Amino acid sequence: MEEVETTLIINPLDDIAKLKALASEPRIQMLSLLRQKTLNINEISDTLKLPQSTVATHISILEDAGLIITESVKAKKGNQKLCHPSFRELLVQFPEKKDESSDYVDIEMPIGLFTDCQVTAPCGLCSADKIIGLLDIPDSFLNPDRMKAGLLWCGSGTFEYKFPNNYLKDSKKVNKLEVSMELSSETPGTNSNWPSDITVWINKTEIGTWTCPGDFGDKRGKYTPLWWKLEGSQYGLLKHFSVSEEGSFIDGEKISDVKLSDLHMSEHHSIRVRVGVKENSEHVGGMNIFGKGFGNYNQGIILRSYFDHS
Asked: In angstroms, rounded to a whole number, what is the distance separating the alpha carbons of residues 46 and 294?
């Protein structure tokens, strides 16, 4: 069988068949069972104490809706139908209404493609498959495999990323920059009450600091691989740092008076984004940066440039 996809996003306006398939307690119980292991009709029937004919009907509905995959294989007597989940997670989500007036360009940077880093232990990095280098050894961040990183962490320090400057390439004027990334604090094990002051700089100008409330491990991150122990950091919070001529903001809340003009965009061939925890911060609680294959958002660091319409 092909590898199971991670998440199915169900649009309730279009995917009525999937919603109807889910509107049944027995079918929900079957999906829950199949997330744990592959089962045949008889095994599902025995586990849920339901007639085989009833189970077969429910399985057919789930299969028609694309929520499970079945295959016929040889058994001791005849054939048996093996049932697999099509997705590990199902997310019902209304589509976002697109703002037709929006004019922007996104550049996504893998979290391992930093151009500079200065970190202190505890620190480390890993891909979706394995630890990269050695734990708590800052030189591991020089490992060429860092490009595959899906999770970076440090006790204090900074990572810097260099993005192309669309300000110089587009005839329209940039009126806002926005950087989004998934972040959490960092402590041995996890602790949801472990504040850390995480600061962002753009073009060497400090735009502001956000105090992360903790290092989250109450449940596995949506994309965090199964080999990563539950005792480790599981997910972060997706934060949006933006700068316009009105000042600098985190998730729309103003954090400083630094304006876009203070970044001197026209004087730089690249946009340098630095994120980190200063050693002299009030809360030196470390930092995790989640990238592709880890956390809840499956993204790298995204730089969005908004343009004027004039």
From this structure: 36
